[in-house]
């Protein structure tokens, strides 16, 4: 049996996020879906898995049904497969932020960097005038990254602003291109850099997962594997599973989704 895995997020106004938790759990349970979803006043983020028809039903309700009232009209979605169910249970967690940066002035619904399609990414990061920045945490970077990318060596995303203040200069680093697993960290990271006066900020649309799905291995500038937030552990080109499950999936993985 093959399972369909959906990584998703959208920044949207959810002042009623607490009230959404119970019906979202019920929706997923009805369709046999497992995974982890984060709800906060700023939107939704997470990864879920199930059979094709179950995933399709849940995504349809999220995007066009009454549960979210049309607020998930631009849901960022990436699909992959799994030979075994990659989650033990269904969790919906309530958070202050769907990705924790601790910079309340940052609002990706107001300003973000320039999206770059996977097909155009190689040319951009090959430009010697572009600073290429991996916004993920250090254990993720160790598993794989793009050639020549800066590693912030962070343990958690909230340390990213400190890295920027110590390492980058908007007067010297005129062009910054950043990437992350699925795109959500770059939404906030690019918004933050723009708020700090960086003039040209780019980010990989759909993240590493979209790049690995789109770009053939022989044309790729990616080195290694991409950590994912479920028991598959890592994916390679074509979003193929690469690593066996060796523990319960908690380990050193982040407490929140990307």
Automatic annotation (TrEMBL):
<comment type="similarity">
    <text>Belongs to the TrhO family.</text>
</comment>
<comment type="function">
    <text>Catalyzes oxygen-dependent 5-hydroxyuridine (ho5U) modification at position 34 in tRNAs.</text>
</comment>
<dbReference type="Pfam" id="PF00581">
    <property type="entry name" value="Rhodanese"/>
</dbReference>
<dbReference type="InterPro" id="IPR001763">
    <property type="entry name" value="Rhodanese-like_dom"/>
</dbReference>
<feature type="domain" description="Rhodanese">
    <location>
        <begin position="126"/>
        <end position="220"/>
    </location>
</feature>
<dbReference type="InterPro" id="IPR020936">
    <property type="entry name" value="TrhO"/>
</dbReference>
<keyword id="KW-0819">tRNA processing</keyword>
<dbReference type="Pfam" id="PF17773">
    <property type="entry name" value="UPF0176_N"/>
</dbReference>
<dbReference type="InterPro" id="IPR036873">
    <property type="entry name" value="Rhodanese-like_dom_sf"/>
</dbReference>
<dbReference type="InterPro" id="IPR040503">
    <property type="entry name" value="TRHO_N"/>
</dbReference>
<protein>
    <recommendedName>
        <fullName>tRNA uridine(34) hydroxylase</fullName>
        <ecNumber>1.14.-.-</ecNumber>
    </recommendedName>
</protein>
<keyword id="KW-0560">Oxidoreductase</keyword>
